[in-house]
Every structure is written in C-alpha cells, then in structure tokens.
Specification:
about 650 residues, 25 strands, six-stranded antiparallel sheet, single chain, alpha/beta, eight-stranded parallel barrel, binds alpha-D-glucopyranose
C-alpha cells in the first residue's frame, strides 16, 4: 500500500542528502517508495510497542540510504545485470564450493592461485567459511564473531578480501559469506560493554540476574550441543548475570526484541553487501527470536525479521541473494521461502537439508521410499526460489525429517534412526561407513552424524583393507550421491576436500579449542600433493575429481537443470531406484539413481508415464545411446549407478 507520510520522509532524506535524480538514483527511489510501507508494517509488528521503535525506524531508513549511497558503482552495475536476468541464482551454470580459507590455502590472497584448480572442476561460486575476527580457542569455526567488520588476521585483511572479490568479478565468479545473525562472541565489543555493566549493551543480549527467567526458558528449549555445551544459559562472573548461550557458552545470543540490535545487524548486512557478496548465508536464522514456552526456533517473528531484511536488501543492494541456513524439519525449512503474502519474498535460497539427509538414508538402506515420501513437501518450493544442494558440509548430518515419512515407508521411526546412526558410526556389522555420532543427547537418545563424504561412503575402510572392489564401490557411491545433488535442482555446494576424497582426520583431538567438537574430523587441512593426484590417472583422487568435473560440465550444458520448478518424480516401480524428469521448453532429461549394491531394473514404462514418449535417449554420464524398450522390458542400472539421460527422439502417442 502507498503511504504518503513515508513517501514524504523519503523525499526529505533525498533532499537532505542532496540526491540528484539520475536514472540510477530513480531506480533506487522507486524501490524505496514501493517497499517502505511493507517494511514499516513488519517493523511495527515487531517493535510497534517498543519505546524506541519510532526512533529506530528512522535509523533504519537512514541505514538503507547510506547502504545504497556507499555501494560501489561496479556493484550497482552488477545489481542491474542480475535484476535484468531475474532470479540469476536459478541458473544451472552455478556451482559452488564451501571452504575454510586457512585450511584450504593458508590465506585469502592465496585463493587467487587456486582459481585454476577450482575452475577446472567447474566451480564459480565460493563460500568462504567465516573469515571475520573470532577468538582462537573459542571460535566455533569462526561462528563466534568478535568483530563483524574486521577480517581475522589469520586469513588476511579487508583489503585482501576486497582484492579477491575484484579478482572474482574479473573471473565471473561469485562470492558467498556468512552473517552470524543469532549471536556474537563473548569477546565482541557489545558483549564486553555488557560485561562491564553498560545497560545499553546488556539489552543487546538476554541477560538475567537470577535463574527465574532462564529456568522458564529451559522448560521448553532443546539443547543444541548437549555434549559440548549443555543448557542454554551461562553464568557471567564479571557482571553477575546469566546470559543466553544457545550454542556454545562463548556465543551470546543477540536479543532481537530490541530494535537497536536489528538496525545494527542490518547495517552489518549492508557492509557485507557492499564488499560484493553475491549470496549472504544467514547463519542459524531459525533461532533469532525467543519466546518463553516455545522451542525458541522457527517463531513467526524470526520470519518477519527475515522478510524485513529481504525487503531492505531489495531496496539498497538488490543483487545480493539471501540464503537461510535453516536446518530444521522439512516443512519448517519450506517456510523460510516465505508464506502467505510473503511467499517467495523471504529467503531466496535454503539448504535442502531434507534431501541431503534422505540421500544418506537411502544409501544406508538401499531403499528410496523414505526419500520419496518427503518429496510432496519439497516440491512446494515457490517459483523463483531455490535450494543449496549438498551431500556434506562443515556441519553434522541431522536426521531431522519427520517420523511419518519413515513410517509411510513401512519402518518404525525409532528403530530406523537407530539403524542409521549405527550404520554411519560404524557400529553395524557389514557397514562400510566410518563416521561418528555428534552431539549425542543421553536424555533423548538423539544424535547426529559426523564424517567426510568419502569415509561415510566407505572409502576409508576400503583403502585400509586394501580392497580394490570396495574402493570402486565407494567411489561409485560418492559420485552417485554428488550426481543426485547436482541434478535435483538448486545450486550444488561441494565441501572442499570431497572433490578428491578426503577421509576423516583425527588431529583435532590434540587441539583444546577443537577437541570437544568432532565435526572437525571432516574439516580437512588440504595437502596439495594429495589434491594434485587428481592429474595422476587411476588414483582415487583422479577418479573422484574427474567424475565430479564431468558431472558439473554436463550440468552446465543442460538448461533443464536450471531450477525453474520443473521437476517431476517418476514412479520407479522399484524401491532401490529414485528417478525424476526435468523439462525446459523442448528439452527433457531423465535422471535415474540406483541406491542398491546390486543391479536394479527399471521398466521402460517409467519413461513414458509423464505424457511423453521418448524412443531414443542419450545418457550423458556413460555417453551411451539407448532405444527405449517396450513396457515389459527393462533398463538395468549398475550397483550405485546412475544415468543422466536426454530425450533425443520421440514419437507422438
Ligand atoms: C550454524 C553453523 C554451525 C555453527 C552454528 C552456530 O549452524 O553452520 O557450524 O556451529 O550455526 O553458529
């Protein structure tokens, strides 16, 4: 709705800043005027009754303006190019890698030297794991930030980051970094001031003199790291107060019921936008609003904050896409794309954590039924939004999909999860996997899973046992897992090291700042001699790197892989197979994956059931052409094999 008063405010801001109405500024002005009433409506829902609400809203309008004014011309130009493309991030030409700069190549400046390696693989989007200042020893891999604007000296400087971003623009590469919205390190200036007794900053956090409110919260709040950091509050000696610490005890939760926190963090978001971030990964958004009597996750206000951030970004720095790192239950994840009037107007991207976990589920059981049971929810993703698809990342694998999905597939949910945990932690006879349980909670029996892609797929064990056949089987599993995540829709995000099959590493146990967190077993320190074995024919590194490179190349050349909500599942008539088809104009592809350790049969009818009648199809993976057989004949797929087939000839029905 148009709001005259707000329009006048914008005109006043423009005149105060003496803004001349160039074409460029007119675009900004239009975006501002057309979004400001929605921004205010959300802001009022959150802070309408807050004594400082009005003043903070004026501050927010100024923050938007100064973000736009300080945006470098080159980034404004890039904004335009992206806006012209519309939903630039749906493209099948994007493929990312997530990496710790120090563990990958030492420091930010060295990244440039690694571009040829990454580009050879097919990577054009880099997710740099947190690089802003974070205290050594209590850093949570950089997710405990003590200065949101200072690059940690371990990685380099802000100038280095600006330099590398410029190099990335020159190379047509995209940059993704995190904003850790939910908490700061206890060494952050705000936390230090709060410790020193500054009321203004104590109000930035959830701080209490006694246990009354903390105890009320604890009644319904789950524990995130029950082993390493039990409970949700920590006693702070310096100021005699309890502070909310949902994650580790050194990560203090920001209090978003205070509008000053939101405005300060919005300013930080714009700071990152103006560095040239293409995708902003919003860390742990599910947690940003707390309410006694709830789990303090996925609350409506958390969504309102994200919607508000999206609108503000849309006005000032519209080229930056937002990725919500919501690793929650399947339907709860979907809500981060926005609901109701805000459908497709919240996060542009979310991690497809459901699909990721379900691929691991199917790999262990050889049965795709649970995966298929979840798809009716995943397919509800709004047009114009997309997934980050992945098999592994720096975090653990949670089995957070719903019990009913497991039950629908005919299993007992409790026993099924027990089996998966045993299977991947190596406690099941016959398993090839080598992983470990992460954050086991003795009170609930819950646990997640740590381990690298290669170790969980059996490569570590196979190498140790010098078993060539098992090595080949594990490489097939690795490639099938990756292939599915590359073709199911969304931006594939590889985790560094997985492209050459790094196995688990246990040296973190000797480091006091890491030993309490076994996620470090799958965060390797890169040994470039190993990575360069990618060029030595027949090595495991060569087989895995070569396979992934080929997959990404196929992906880039197949327009139906762009995420235009164009996926239809095929009824496989075989529990071991997951298959889907995707269409773009006249191009149709069929992707078929066999999760069994035995050859699986797929009736050719499966290719005809979606209103098409292909007669010839070409598998891009094996580079083989097939004539589509009759309904009683079968396509046979190798153990852990897959096909990426394109229709090359068809007949009318
Ligand atoms: C996110 C990160 C995880 C971190 C947590 C707390 O989930 O991915 O690594 O521990 O947030 O910041």
């Amino acid at each position: 709705m148009y709001n005259h008063k707000l329009h006048s405010k914008i005109l006043k801001i423009f005149s105060d800043h003496q803004l001349k109405r160039t074409t460029e500024i007119n675009f900004f002005y239009t975006r501002f005027v057309s979004n400001i009433s929605a921004i205010q409506a959300l802001f009022n829902e959150l802070y309408g009754n807050h004594p400082k609400g009005k003043a903070q809203f004026d501050g927010l309008m100024e923050t938007i303006t100064s973000a736009y004014l300080s945006r470098p011309a080159a980034l404004k130009q890039k904004d335009h190019e992206k806006l012209e493309k519309e939903n630039w991030f749906l493209s099948n030409e994007l493929a990312g890698m997530s990496l710790y700069v120090d563990r990958f190549c030492g420091n930010i400046l060295n990244l440039e030297k690694k571009f040829p390696y990454l580009q050879e693989l097919g990577i054009n989007l880099l997710h740099l794991m947190p690089i802003f200042e974070s205290p050594e020893g209590e850093s949570d891999g950089g997710y405990a930030v003590s200065d949101f604007r200072k690059v940690d000296k371990r990685f380099g400087t802000l100038e280095d980051l600006n330099h590398i971003q410029q190099c990335m623009i020159d190379e047509d590469m995209y940059l993704m970094i995190d904003i850790v919205l939910n908490h700061t390190s206890q060494k952050h200036e705000w936390a230090m001031q709060a410790k020193a007794g500054e009321k203004k900053y104590q109000e930035f956090f959830y701080m209490y003199e006694d246990r009354y409110i903390p105890d009320e919260f604890e009644k319904s709040m789950p524990e995130i790291f029950p082993q390493g950091a039990p409970g949700n509050f920590t006693w702070v000696e310096d100021c005699d107060r309890w502070v909310m610490t949902v994650f580790h005890n050194y990560q203090w939760d920001l209090n978003y019921t205070n509008p000053a926190v939101l405005v300060a963090m919005l300013d930080t978001i714009f700071f990152y936008a103006n560095i040239g971030v293409d995708i902003l990964r919003i860390d742990a958004p599910a947690f940003i609003w707390k309410q006694i009597g709830t789990k303090c996750q996925n609350l409506p206000e958390a969504h309102k904050i994200l919607q508000l951030i999206k609108l503000c970004v849309q006005v000032a720095t519209p080229g930056m896409a937002l990725l919500g790192e919501a690793i929650v239950a399947p339907q709860a994840i979907m809500d981060y794309f926005g609901t109701g009037a805000f459908r497709a107007k919240e996060c542009d991207l979310a991690y497809n954590a459901t699909q990721m976990a379900l691929q691991w589920d199917a790999l262990a059981t050889g049965d795709t039924k649970v995966m298929l049971a979840a798809q009716s929810i995943l397919l509800r993703k709004p047009y114009g939004t997309s997934w980050i698809t992945y098999t592994r990342c720096h975090d653990d694998i949670g089995l957070g999909y719903d019990d009913y999905m497991i039950e629908q597939a005919g299993y007992n949910a409790y026993e099924h999860r027990q089996f998966l945990k045993n299977y991947y932690s190596g406690n099941y006879s016959g398993t090839q996997a080598r992983g470990a349980l992460f954050s086991y909670n003795p009170k609930t029996g819950d646990a997640r899973i740590s381990g690298t892609l290669a170790s969980l797929c059996g490569l570590e064990k196979a190498i140790e046992e010098n078993d060539e056949e098992a090595i080949t089987a594990s490489i097939n599993k690795i490639l099938m897992m990756q292939a599915m995540s590359f073709f199911i829709g969304g931006i594939p995000m590889l985790f560094y090291g997985d492209e050459v099959g790094y196995t688990n590493e246990h040296s973190y146990l000797e480091d006091e700042g890491k030993s309490y967190d076994n996620r470090w077993m799958h965060r390797p320190e890169i040994n470039w001699d190993k990575n360069l074995l990618k060029d030595k024919k027949g090595t495991n590194e060569n087989r895995i790197f070569g396979g992934i490179k080929k997959l990404l190349k196929i992906r880039k050349n197949l327009p139906p892989v762009a995420d235009k909500s164009n996926l239809t599942w095929i009824t496989p008539h075989n529990i071991h197979i997951a298959a889907f088809t995707r269409k773009d104009n006249d191009l149709q592809i069929f992707c078929v994956f066999n999760f069994s350790d035995k050859p699986s049969f797929l009736t050719w009818y499966a290719f005809r059931e979606n209103g098409v009648n292909p007669t010839k199809i070409f598998d891009h993976w094996t580079e083989k052409e097939y004539s589509v057989g009759r309904d009683h004949e079968f396509l046979i797929i190798k153990p852990y094999g897959f096909l990426l087939m394109e229709e090359i000839d068809s007949e009318a029905y």
